[in-house]
């Protein structure tokens, strides 16, 4: 169970969640993507209805609806499932505050969810460190942090890491920062390679060898309700996420 988190917006959390999940599922792994962002971007990219009154993650977290009641199979992707988020989830940050075990609502819901034998659960977090992200970090075994290869990339990272440590100390002792993935890499700029070097110097083997390049195909795919894996499997972005997924799967088997 992997929480994909970074409170900085637009760094590639959703693109990474969706495409790693799709790549793993195409290799026969059974994968659930939990959309924990009220923007519902992961739901959109996975062609999973998330408007109107479809049951969603909000109802699981706040109203105790079973996870099984909201999970949908992703069209054309037999091993891939999505727990959608609607805009209702925006209210959860506040409504959760007054509920019992407010940090562990997602963990509880996922623990009770044994409808399918899943190999991976990937949680796409919103760009904040609020209770939704806390719920993801309490539920997860691992944190994956996408870092955009740009100037402000490392700003705010310290705060995220402190939060991970706090949650580890108080709420989820087995949580670990397993993976950093460098995204939107533009090989033509010195800055991108400098940021990549700096991140590798800091985090060593936690950083995937595979770097995700800037690729227009990656940004186009969601508007077709597809991952890039089916939208344009030969594109640089698809191949990079396929390699990244392979690294993650390999790490899981040797760990
Ligand atoms: N490697 C890439 N190449 C080109 N565009 C990309 C790449 N990765 C992501 N994008 C685009 O950049 C934007 C932000 O990416 P994404 O939505 O994955 O980030 P996010 O961290 O989930 O954002 P938010 O914080 O809003 O949830 C999107 O329009 C996406 O299509
Ligand atoms: Mg997102």
Order of helices and strands: EHEHHEEHHEHEHEHHHH
Question: Numbering strands along the chain, what is their spatial order in the largest sheet?
Answer: 3-4-2-5-1-6-7
The poorly predicted ranges are none
Which distinct ligands sit in these coordinates? adenosine-5'-triphosphate, magnesium ion
Distance between the termini: 14 Å
Q: What radius of gyration results from the CA coordinates? A: 17 Å
Mean pLDDT: 95
Quickly count the helices. 11
Query: Which strand-content bin applies to the residues?
Result: 5-15%
Q: How many strands, which pairing sense, and closed or not: the largest β-sheet?
A: 7 strands, mixed
| Helix vs. strand class | alpha/beta
Oligomer: single chain
Number of strands: 7
Q: What form results from the Cα inertia axes?
A: globular
Fraction of helical residues = 40-55%
Label this structure with key terms:
alpha/beta; 7-stranded mixed beta sheet; 7 strands; 13% strand; binds adenosine-5'-triphosphate; binds magnesium ion
């Amino acid at each position: 169970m992997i929480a994909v988190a970074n409170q900085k917006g637009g760094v590639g959390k959703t693109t990474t969640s969706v495409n790693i999940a799709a790549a793993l599922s195409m290799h026969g792994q059974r994968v659930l993507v939990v959309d924990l962002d009220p923007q519902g971007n992961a739901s959109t990219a996975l062609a999973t209805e998330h408007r109107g009154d479809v049951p969603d993650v909000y109802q699981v977290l706040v109203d105790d609806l079973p996870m099984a009641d909201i999970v949908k199979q992703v069209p054309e992707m037999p091993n891939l499932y999505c727990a959608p988020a609607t805009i209702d989830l925006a209210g959860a940050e506040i409504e959760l505050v007054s509920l019992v075990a407010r940090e562990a609502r997602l963990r509880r819901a996922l623990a009770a969810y044994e409808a399918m034998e899943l190999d991976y659960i990937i949680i796409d977090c919103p760009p904040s460190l609020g209770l939704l992200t806390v719920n993801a970090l309490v539920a997860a075994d691992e944190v994956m942090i996408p870092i955009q290869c740009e100037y402000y990339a490392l700003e705010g990272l310290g705060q995220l890491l402190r939060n991970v440590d706090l949650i580890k100390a108080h709420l989820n002792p087995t949580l670990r920062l397993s993976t950093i993935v460098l995204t939107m890499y533009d090989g033509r700029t010195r800055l991108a390679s400098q940021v990549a070097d700096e991140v590798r110097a800091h985090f060593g083997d936690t950083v995937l060898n595979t770097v995700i390049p800037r690729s227009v195909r990656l940004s186009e795919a969601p508007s077709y309700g597809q991952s890039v894996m089916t939208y344009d499997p030969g594109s640089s972005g698809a191949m990079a996420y396929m390699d990244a997924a392979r690294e993650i799967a390999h790490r899981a088997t040797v760990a």
